[in-house]
Amino acid sequence: MTHKILVTLGPSSLNQAFVEECSKLGVYVFRINLSHTAIEDVAPTIEKIRQWTDIPICLDSEGAQLRNQKMIGGRIHFLEGEKVKIHHQS
């Protein structure tokens, strides 16, 4: 059986020394978890990784989910049967 190594890069591992060491050890792909990466940070992160290695990069988007990091007061309450409209604002 052949095994391939996937390494998730995050705040503590996104540095040149770690990426280059993983590349030397035969990592198959580097993963960026989009659930924990701001959209405006994706391109600069990829550019940074590309400066250090040519190993493929996987962008992991878990799928259709609603994420709201800037909710006023940190909470929102819904009543049973209440209709909710969600709007995208950029």
Automatic annotation (TrEMBL):
<dbReference type="Pfam" id="PF00224">
    <property type="entry name" value="PK"/>
</dbReference>
<dbReference type="GO" id="GO:0030955">
    <property type="term" value="F:potassium ion binding"/>
</dbReference>
<dbReference type="GO" id="GO:0000287">
    <property type="term" value="F:magnesium ion binding"/>
</dbReference>
<dbReference type="GO" id="GO:0004743">
    <property type="term" value="F:pyruvate kinase activity"/>
</dbReference>
<protein>
    <recommendedName>
        <fullName>Pyruvate kinase barrel domain-containing protein</fullName>
    </recommendedName>
</protein>
<feature type="domain" description="Pyruvate kinase barrel">
    <location>
        <begin position="3"/>
        <end position="87"/>
    </location>
</feature>
<dbReference type="InterPro" id="IPR015806">
    <property type="entry name" value="Pyrv_Knase_insert_dom_sf"/>
</dbReference>
<dbReference type="InterPro" id="IPR015793">
    <property type="entry name" value="Pyrv_Knase_brl"/>
</dbReference>
<dbReference type="InterPro" id="IPR040442">
    <property type="entry name" value="Pyrv_kinase-like_dom_sf"/>
</dbReference>
<dbReference type="InterPro" id="IPR015813">
    <property type="entry name" value="Pyrv/PenolPyrv_kinase-like_dom"/>
</dbReference>
